[in-house]
Each structure stands twice: as structure tokens, then as C-alpha cells.
Amino acid sequence: MPIGQFLLNVFRIVLIDLVLAGDNALVIAMAVRSLPKRERRIGTVCGAALAVLIRAALTLIAARLLEVQYLKLAGGLFVLWIAWKVLRDVSEEPDEAAVPKRLLQAIWYVVVADLTMSVDNILAIAGAAGGNFELILFGLALSIPFVVFSSNLLADLMNRFPVTIYLGVAILGQVGADMVLTDPSLQRALHPSDAFRYGIEAGVVAALLIAGRIRARR
Questions:
Q1: Percentage of the chain surpassing pLDDT 90?
Q2: Do residues 110 and 44 lie in contact, with contact meaning Cβ atoms separated by under 8 Å?
């Protein structure tokens, strides 16, 4: 590969990582938010690193992942569950005695959520790398510091300003609903229009926020 093309591909991969890191960082921040600061960083780094290693293996079959029925459906439901869990836990005091268990649980959440949300990311990096596996690994590895930095920043922000948790839940609600509605099985069964999809996404976000407020008042 000519050096000019190689450098251009590197630049494209960096831009892709920057653009696509946001949703993943938010999910990770939500998953580790309730952990003490030190464990939060451990959970974020370990979860993101494990997810990237698995992503590298999946890159070889990346084009087929978009056609796997129920993958995005399951991932979307998992993201919605994380959003509800955050709303459920937001008013509860952290149980410091359960930190080891919660840390392993948070790492598991990070890995599953990151993988189910990263199919488009894998495809974009694979395309920008022009089939060069070393460049693909570079792009996936580069996503770790972007996601770790962003997720830790978001987690600190949510702990300092609790109102931002509801904004994060709203974004996760939209992301989760969109993943569910764009799963190949539902696409074939429902053929949802853009208006229908946006309406469902708005309804899911509203339902999450209303349910969270009702629970908080109780």
C-alpha cells in the first residue's frame, strides 16, 4: 500500500473512532457510574479492552454481522435495560461491601453493550482500513483511549450533576429503541417508516423518563 494511501486510511480511522465513540462511551459511563472512582476506571478499561479484543476477531466476519437476526434486537433491549437500571439505582446509596461483585458485573455490562453496539463501528473501520488487518487492529485499539476518557468524563459529570443522568437515559432510550427497530428480523416483518421509528423512539424515551420520575418520588 502506498504511504500516502496508508496515512489517509489512518486519518480516516481516527475520525471514525472520534465520531462513533460517543454512544459506547455513554453506555459504559452508565454501567460503571455507581462504582467508586478507582473501580470505575478499572471497570471501564477492562471492559473496553475485552470488547476491542473480541471486536478484532469479529472483524473478519463483520459484513455478515449486520444480517444476524436478533443481534441488534438483543443489544437494543440490553441498552434499554441498562437505562432502566440506572434510573432504578440513581436514588440508592452505593453498597461498598459489594464492590467486587459490582465491578465484575459492570465489566460484563460494558463488554456486552459495547459489542452489540459496535457492528457499524467495526464495518466502518474495516472499510477505512482497505482490508489491511494491521490498520483494523490499530483502529480498534485506538478506540480504547477515546472511549475510556469519554466514559470516565461522563461518569464524573453525572455524579457531579445528577440531572445529566436523565439526559443520558434519554439518549440510551433512543439508541436502544433504534437498535431494536433496525434489527433485520423486525425490518422484514414491519418495514417501519422513518416517521414510525422516530415515534416509537420518542415514546420509549418518554416512558423511561416518566417511569424513572415516578419511581424516584416513591
A1: 5
A2: yes
Report, in this order, helix, strand and coil percent for the chain, each rounded to 5: 85, 0, 15
pTM of the predicted model as reported, rounded to 2 decimal places:
0.67
Q: Mean pLDDT across the stretch 23-47?
A: 78
Amino acid of residue 181: L
* pLDDT at res. 205: 92
- Angstrom distance (rounded) from CA 185 to CA 176: 16
Place of cell 446509596: 93
Note the pLDDT of residue 60.
Answer: 62
Q: Quote the mean pLDDT of the chain.
A: 75
Chain CA centroid to CA 78, Å: 10
| CA angle (172 as vertex; 140, 74 as ends), nearest 5 | 75
- Pick the closest to residue 55 from 123, 115, 108 (CA basis): 115
* pLDDT given for residue 62 in this prediction: 59
Grid cell, residue 32, equals 460503571
What the block records as the C-alpha cell of 119 is 457492528
Q: How confident is the model at residue 121 (pLDDT cuts 50, 70, 90)?
A: low
Q: Which of 76, 202, 58, 56 is nearest to 139 (CA)?
A: 56
Residue 137: HSE in the Cβ half-sphere, 13 Å Cα cutoff: 5
**Distance between CA atoms of residues 148 and 138, nearest Å:** 16
Q: Tally the residues of the chain.
A: 218
| Closest CA relative to residue 95, chosen from 34, 50, 150 | 34
